[in-house]
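We treat protein structure as text, and this decision shapes the records that our systems exchange. Because each token names a local backbone shape, the row as a whole describes the fold. An entry from our holdings is shown next, in its original layout:
>
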Amino acid sequence: MNTRKNQRNLTSSQRTRFVEAVLELKRSGRYEKYVRTHAQYFTSDGENGLRVAHMAPTFFPWHRQFVLYFERDLQLIDPSVTVPYWDWTVDNEESSALWSADFMGGNGRQSDGQVMTGPFAYGNGKWPITFGVTDEKYLTRNIGRPDRPIRLPTKAELDGALALGTYDTAPWNSAPGTQGFRNRIEGWTVSESKGGYLHNRVHQWVGGHMIGAASPNDPVFWLHHAFIDLIWVRWQRLHPKSGYLPMKPMAGSDRERGRVISADEPMPPFNVKPSEMFDHRPYYRYEE
């Protein structure tokens, strides 16, 4: 059974093997499919068509499948590798070992945001950005967003979201009227000072390529989403009688019909139903 660990508990060898597998996936050209897929399925409330990766109940099961596919690709390179998770309620400073030169590398430089240290720095020649929403060929970060400082979510904020007993509610999008666990965790901006609830604020705190549809360009994306997945696991433990919603397809008169996926409808591009992803235990476990 594959075990995903907190990144702070990885041995030096485990950190190295994870990084080397990610670099090899990049060298082979297979990494870009994850960046492109994430960008392709980033559909917002204001756009027409299906919402599946974001601003929809499928946020959790879609990303569970997405990270699992990535993990399996890494394991074709090194079977010992699993995706570690980043608990940003604990490792919430730029000085965290997460950002060391032998792991994720550090912040971007002030002039252009270019990451200059670590294995994913452009200067090391192993991490060119080939698909993105901007033209930079180098990885960028802007940790903490100094011009408008924000902080990472706290344990108290996370606990507050975990206490919500309903998974999601109509209209199943990012609007404030959509109450429940999924929209609180996913986190759409409520004010400039807060910069969003939880998941989105982490993307904003890292900055650079982590902002926007092509966020998997920054490998820390995977550690963030492994923790998001673990948060879903924790919510399921706390609320065993409260499951995914909506369970049934939208009625023909519902404005969200064709835009929101119910429990037993397939999620593109995986052709996997949300219900098939409710239980992570057939695939991996978490060391907490």
